[in-house]
Amino acid sequence: MSLKDIRGVPVSYSDQKAIDAMEDAHICAMSFYGDPIGRIDKVLSEHPDFIMGHCFKAAWLTQTLETRIYKRMVAALSAAEALWDKANDREKGHIKAVKAWVEGDFYGAVQQWEAVLTSYPYDLLALQLIHLTDVLLGDVAGQRDCVARVFALWDEDMPGYEFVLGFYSFGLEENSDYLQAEEMGRMSLAIRPDNPYAVHAVSHVMEMQGRQAGGISFMRDRAPSWSKSHFANHLWWHLSLFHLDIGQIDRVFDVYDNNLRTPHQTVDKYEELDAAALLWRLKLLGVDVGDRWASLADKWEPSASDTLYAFNDVHAMMTFVSDGRTEAAQKLLTANERYIDHATDANTAMSREVGLPFCLALQDFEKENYNSCVDRLLAVRYRTHRLGGSHAQRDIIGWTLLEAALRSKRYDLALALANERCALKTTSVQNWNYVARAHKGLGDITKADKAAARAQSLMAG
Ligand SMILES: [Fe+2]
């Protein structure tokens, strides 16, 4: 006998309690609370023939993008495949999607989940996986459009609507539709005030619009709830970006030391990613970060030759070059060079087009080969979305380029790049400081003083 889930989507299993328990695990995954895998494992131990349960587990494990979970993902997929003959069309679609993923065809996985969603527009798991994978792959339009294709069919009476609003909010934000993005994010928070993904989407809107003071109070007001979620590290990082942008370096260190510096290896990569991204920004500003790189490099070193996800590799490289770990840096470069010569998975193109050039540029920066760093980054700067992540995360590439342009004394280029950043975000102290430095390099002290004064007044404000 087949039943349906809470949204009326068919499930080829006859125990409603198991289906409801999977929904609880899914809510944990969408709201970044609790242990979704632990919950579904408990369900599966009592219901080993629950196909959709295995599909959920395998699908959710895809999102960690770490080699250490790979075996568990493959085992969950095998368990689902063993039940293929009993699976309905929807479940077969989920199985095919994870199978494509395991084979390294991330784009194929998205297509399979897309086909499921087209037939079952209330399949919230399929929608979530398409959206999140599009973020990982840097498919910017896809992050928004996967939600747009089903959104008109949803309303607030449908369970999970607040999560759909959160996905839509982030997708709209990444496509620069800030007004609608903020509206969707705040609608989500009206239904579920502790939805970390919606907090995240609204904070991205504020980041892109340069609303630093508003961003700080928005994040701090809501911190009592989101700081308990599994998304907390990344949200602390967002808070630190607002402080960084207006020159509050002490606050940035507070966030780093209290929230991004767990002494032991963390269970997910977010903390290490965000910690590296934050320290590199401080390095670009010439701030002494003490011994912080060393403990972070210890965490990254075991995955130096993973070649699993280019986005991870560039952050690993930031820590290796900054902590003087030339062996680990070389190991990462060699592994990537071999990998792009032989592999055919979806990450290969990401590594070839952006990951490896950026890693080499980081190495150049550390060796003070600033001209080479500039040339490498200029060549890829409008392709960097292929690396995955968000505009706010990839901003580190443009920022590195600008700092390298200044240090290589290519002041006309530096001024052009600084002006570009100011046009996009006019409230950033850092951006005006860059304009001032570029004018100074070109010998225009009047304009340099004017830009520096603008930075000072923004800092005072
Ligand atoms: Fe973010």
From TrEMBL:
Keywords: Repeat, TPR repeat
Superkingdom in the source lineage: Bacteria
Gene3D superfamilies: Tetratricopeptide repeat domain
Family recorded in the similarity comment: Belongs to the TTC38 family.
Full protein name: Tetratricopeptide repeat protein 38
Organism this protein belongs to: Kiloniella litopenaei
